[in-house]
Amino acid sequence: MREPARIFEDALSLPSDARARLAAKLIESLEPEAEAAVEETWRAETARRVQELDDGTVTTVDWVEARRQILG
Question: How far is CA 25 from CA 20, 21, 69, 72, in A?
């Protein structure tokens, strides 16, 4: 088995996008069941929001207006 410190050093030599993908996979491996539950929750939330847009129960706001509302 390779030493974690050596694996870490090897990972640091990867391009940033590859390091990000590796980090995500490592985090997913810690709690795969929890990750699946989070993914499903986000899928459901996304579907709900799309449905609200399709039904016309909510409307979008352009960035200029959103920023104005946020900054008050």
Answer: 9, 6, 37, 40
Nearest to 4 by CA among 26, 24, 20, 33: 26
Distances (CA, A) of 59 to 47, 49, 71: 15, 10, 20
Residues 45, 24: Cα–Cα separation, whole Å: 22
- Whether pTM exceeds 0.70: no
**Run means of pLDDT, 10 residues per run, the chain, 72 residues:** 91 96 89 81 96 96 96 92
